[in-house]
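haha ok so turns out i had the wrong file open the whole time. this is the CORRECT one, sorry everyone. sequence first:
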Amino acid sequence: MQGKSGSGGLPVGKIPLGELERLLSASWSFRRPSTLVGPAVGEDAAIISLGNLDLVFHLDPITEAGELAGWLAVHVASNDVAASGARPRWIALAILAPRGSSGEDLRRIQGDAEKAAREVGVEIVGGHTEVSPGLSKPVVVAAAAGVTCRGCAVPTGGARPGDLVLQVKPAGIEGTAIIATDFRALLERAGIAESIIERAAALASRVSVVREALELAEYGLVTSMHDPTEGGLIGGLVEMALASRLRFKVWEERVFVAEETRVVTEALGVDPLKLISSGTLLATVPSSLKGDAEHVLEGLGVEYSFIGEVEAGGVGVQLYKSPGRIELYEAPPVDEISKLWGG
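then structure:
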């Protein structure tokens, strides 16, 4: 799907890879020796050496949600720090509210953020709040940081040939919750039962992957991890493949989504595998450690599936949809939820 751009501009969502690489090239001209992982296509977070500790730093905007913006901002940023192998500790928030917002609107966003912070165990240490022109819904930007032992961080680009591709928790969790919250009227007009809409909205409570990511990292079971956001599970896999400079072969029949996600996406003509997907954890696991990873995840009581494998000889994602039918992705797709926002 091509995002709408208008007036020959860029498509909605993450910018095309060529444009991103041109933007990043300026930052590559200066790099401190302490920067172990800096800005790069597909990487989740910066990793900076502090001597005996490594600092993991990440920033993410929430642009595709309305009611859940404050809640998601904290969880999504915390997920990305955890997916880099560090426990998230601190967060700064920038809350940009549309013209006409009330003090109550801002307090609701901040209250949701504070609730999420308590759940994750992070401290909101600062930020910025304003009412901004040109916005149709709130935009919340979260910068999160955490520390881990020296050499213990997990880069997005750490996958190796022969690794297995692991999916933890269903695809499309975040997007399903956003649809059920911000597009409830569309689902009601499509005849979706109230009970399913409520269950879909409740998936917001599953958006954190901090526990799962930290357990896998602590036991040294993963070579890379990723919390897929815009572009969904497919977008996350593409970013891992690009960062690792490898090919990811994935079988669609092994990928799993929740029943609520299947119902609401079918009703609105949305592809669940390209739907914004915080709450899903992607990882690569050495084949020799598959049993250990299964043991850890079963101990956590969480759903998982080994959906593919990593190989050399190309860069991108091969999605095996059926015998003889393969889709090739060399760039993240535009997120499906942009269809609903009219972007």
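Residues 103-120 form the longest helix (18 residues).
again sry for the mixup
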